[in-house]
Design goal:
Layout lengths: L40 E7 L6 H20 L8 E7 L4 H13 L5 E4 L3 H14 L3 E3 L14 E3 L4 H15 L5 E6 L3 H16 L7 E4 L7 H9 L4 E3 L4 H13 L5 E4 L6 H6 L8 E4 L9 H14 L5 H20 L4 H8 L5 E3 L2 E3 L11 E6 L4 E7 L2
Parallel strand pairs: 1-2, 1-3, 3-4, 4-5, 6-7, 6-8, 8-9, 9-10
Antiparallel strand pairs: 10-13, 11-12, 13-14
Helix pairs in contact: 1-10, 2-3, 4-5, 10-11
The structure holds phenylalanine (PHE).
């Protein structure tokens, strides 16, 4: 199809990097270096391309890029090329807010894609809500994200469901009755997922002998792990992100923990199995999509095209970012004009969108209701174990 692309679409993948312009510098109309892409329809992607969550940004950018290239190869949107402007959040909330501000005011984005981490989507979503620019988070699962207001959508499930899925898996599939929680404090995602897991696991008759917390960026966990191990739990549920999860597993095994680790989608990264020193082999985490469990034509085609372009297999994040781009694009097409308010109204009407991660319908809370997949960790990969429907 690439040969059929109009020539104007060929140059649409210059990533926008407006740099470190402060948000305060954007007030007023005389924006130096304003480079709105007048002949294109611009979506802004904000993602962590550097820092401890950099794998999230890479996966999202690749998923969005593949979708945009396919859209442009098929003629673009409303006869114009689709341009993706990209800003690095560095995994930081304040940076996420200014990234979104730049995307809207400097790049002229009519729709925003991102973030991955819920705390960053909360920061960016507030900006979208203020300027009434529609935002689709591919993968932020904390309920508060879309509760920000009518401009904020997501194409993934939410954590009350994900927590329930992992609690059932621990209680019913693994047969555990004692599971400790070790969460990242200060991340909306981890705290919310811990709450959801606790509620569900207790509801199923399990006990949580202790609940401990760490901070993003911590590298030593022995004090909290000592407290946890003293309770002799069968499993440790660890809501947080992949960088710390790999370190926690190594340290816990070093301290003699032989039970199972369990996590949520925040573990989803190729770095997890590279950095865990095989200490997570046989452990489990939930995600929204697994290419090796994919059964639909579009999922298989997505995985094939992604691998052909990037030379590695896509994960859930890449697929969700692809689907977020489809949702925004289809809303633009239905809106008939690149007008944010109309795109927003059409996004709210998203029903049965045939995405790589499955059929996507957005409910009244602007959330997708979708299945979860549980992955089992092996030496060099995490592989499909089972699907859990809502
Ligand atoms: N769900 C996580 C959050 O809300 C982000 C995430 C999703 C990370 C999917 C990896 C994969 O913060």
């Amino acid at each position: 199809m690439a040969n059929g692309a109009p020539p104007s679409t060929r140059r649409t993948f210059l990533a926008g990097t407006a740099g470190t312009l402060a948000a305060s510098a954007l007030a007023g109309s005389s924006i130096v270096g304003c480079r709105k892409h007048r002949d294109a329809i611009t979506f802004g992607l904000y993602a962590a391309l550097t820092g401890s969550m950099a794998d999230f940004g890479t996966a999202s950018r690749n998923g969005v890029t593949l979708a945009a290239e396919e859209i442009n190869a098929a003629g673009g949107l409303l006869g114009k090329p689709l341009y993706i402007a990209i800003e690095d959040t560095r995994g930081d909330s304040a940076e996420a807010a200014s990234a979104v501000t730049r995307l809207i005011h400097i790049e002229g984005a009519v729709g925003i894609l991102g973030e991955v981490a819920s705390s960053l989507s909360l920061a960016g979503g507030r900006i979208c809500q203020r300027y009434r620019i529609p935002m689709v988070s591919p993968s932020s699962t904390n309920p508060a994200v879309t509760a920000l207001g009518d401009c904020v959508f997501r194409v993934c499930f939410i954590d009350p469901f994900q927590g329930d899925v992992m609690a059932r898996f621990a209680r019913q599939t693994l047969g555990f009755s004692r599971v400790a929680i070790f969460k990242e404090q200060g991340s909306a995602y981890a705290v919310g997922l811990a709450d959801a897991f606790r509620r569900a696991f207790l509801g199923l008759g399990g006990t949580i002998p202790t609940e401990q917390a760490y901070r993003s960026g911590d590298t030593h966990f022995s004090a909290q792990l000592g407290t946890i191990l003293a309770q002799n739990p069968e499993g440790i549920f660890c809501p947080g992100y992949y960088t710390e999860a790999a370190l926690i597993a190594r340290e816990a095994r070093g301290q003699g923990f032989r039970g199972r680790f369990m996590g949520g989608d925040g573990w989803s990264s190729p770095s997890l199995v590279q950095n865990d020193d095989n200490q997570l082999v046989g452990d489990f985490y939930s995600v929204g999509f697994a290419p090796d469990g994919a059964t639909t034509d579009i999922a298989r085609r997505f995985a094939r095209n992604f691998e052909a372009k990037f030379h590695y297999a896509p994960n859930d994040l890449a697929a969700l970012a692809y689907d977020a781009t489809l949702a925004m694009s289809q809303a633009v097409t239905r809106a008939g004009a690149p007008i944010p308010e109309r795109i927003r109204a059409e996004l709210a009407r998203t029903r049965n969108l045939d995405g790589a991660t499955g059929l996507i319908s957005l409910n009244d809370h602007r959330d997708a209701v979708k299945s979860a997949v549980i992955l089992e960790i092996h030496e060099n990969s995490a592989n499909y174990r089972t699907t859990v429907n809502p």
